[in-house]
Write a structure and sequence with these properties.
The protein is an alpha/beta fold. It has a single domain, classed as Rossmann fold, CATH 3.40.50. About 45% of the residues lie in helices and about 20% in strands. It contains six helices and seven strands; from the N terminus they run βαβαβαβααβαββ. A seven-stranded mixed beta sheet has the order 3-2-4-5-1-6-7, sandwiched between helices. The relative contact order is 0.24.
């Protein structure tokens, strides 16, 4: 039976470092210790390419990297039985990638995106391995000034609630300190 750990917090709060630590502890308890890191980031510019490179360098080599920017639900099913623990970093970028695929037609997509989030949470309940999911908490700041940013903030908050509702454990990381909230 699977076990879902959801880790959220602000940008640069220490979420990824904590997730890698937890994932390492989990895999040490399994007979094989097979670990996968599903990266959702896409490098659309030089700055993002550099961020991705630094993230990869910080990751221990025993984590097999799988790049999957959009079809996360399908990937989670496809790798069933191959790994003991899977870390998804991060849902916020996954959501951004989905919204970006609609371009200027973002106003027609909230119900479609919510459907994709529902599909993801359904998939999470059916997988047999342990999964650690990272997502940014973007709703604690100011109200964004434009409609697109407000839609992103609203969908992020809704997504985080849905994932937290199916998670076995939920952590908020702030200032590098994880706080268990579920």
């Amino acid at each position: 039976m699977g076990h879902i750990i959801f880790i959220t917090g602000g940008a640069r709060s220490g979420k990824s470092a904590y997730a890698l630590h937890v994932g390492g502890q989990i895999s040490n308890l399994s007979p094989y210790g097979r670990k996968a890191f599903i990266a959702t980031a896409e490098a659309f510019d030089e700055e993002m390419k550099e961020r991705i490179t630094l993230h990869k360098k910080a990751r221990p080599s025993e984590w097999e990297t799988i790049e999957e920017p959009v079809t996360l639900r399908e990937k989670l099913h496809k790798i069933e039985g191959l790994y003991d623990v899977v870390l998804v970093d991060c849902l916020t970028l996954w959501l951004s990638n989905i919204l970006s695929s609609y371009g200027d037609r973002f106003e027609i997509c909230p119900h479609i995106v919510k459907g994709k989030i529902e599909d993801l949470t359904t998939a999470l309940k059916t997988i047999s391995y342990k999964v650690i999911i990272i997502s940014n908490e973007v709703g604690q700041g100011i109200v964004p000034e434009n409609k697109t940013a407000r839609l992103f903030r609203d969908l992020s908050g809704w997504m985080n609630q849905k994932v937290a509702s199916v998670a076995d454990e939920v952590y908020l990381v702030t200032c590098g300190i994880p706080v268990k909230i579920k």
